[in-house]
Amino acid sequence: MSADAVSSDLPIELSHVDIDTGRVKILRQISLSIEAGAPTVLIGPNGSGKTTLLRAAMGLIAPSSGRVTWGGHAQSPPLRRAIVFQRPVMLRRSAFGNLHYALASAETPRNARRRRANELLSLVDLDGLGDRPARRLSGGEQQRLAIARALAREPRVLFLDEPTASLDPAATKAIEELVRSVSASGVKVVMATHDLGEARRLAGDIVLLHRGTIVERAAVDRFFNAPATKEAQAFLAGELLL
Fold it and tell me: Of all residues in the chain, what percent carry a pLDDT higher than 90?
């Protein structure tokens, strides 16, 4: 596969995107360009639209109005995109079996699947746990396995929805190290988090959402050191956004 084909999903452009359920407008006039580089991190209060924006950028939700394009194409199958949800579902198989299923779905050649599954287990620091039932892994181990399953597709863009929610500090640190490693390998990470410390540690740029709109977008240092909007200043101060 050519380098152009591999990176064809980027940039992802959302142009004046609205998403509504009929009664509730979840996203309002979202215009956002997602380009190659360090992780883009979405922050904002609960219900601000972070998960819906990830789903729209992945291509799982069609806009009610507006447009989403991937590498300039309005129709782009998610062959090089992957998403991990906050509470990933583990198949009733071993950790290895979960990866084998993902590799088969990605049409990895049969004779390469065992080797690749072992590589992925090692990448996410689950060596020695391949035979353990996936549903008996700890929360942090399940999250790392879910990321490994996503990486089985060899994505160029990886969407993560609050991957460290409810994890203890040690498990959180392991996920953050994995995100850094994935990003350093050239995969564009787009991640939602409720943890401002995590956002500061991982982000290249920050997108603050409130009530379905983008309030502010800035490079991470500028956002935290000199937020431009009153909403961002209030959010960083721990105040409720009204």
Answer: 90
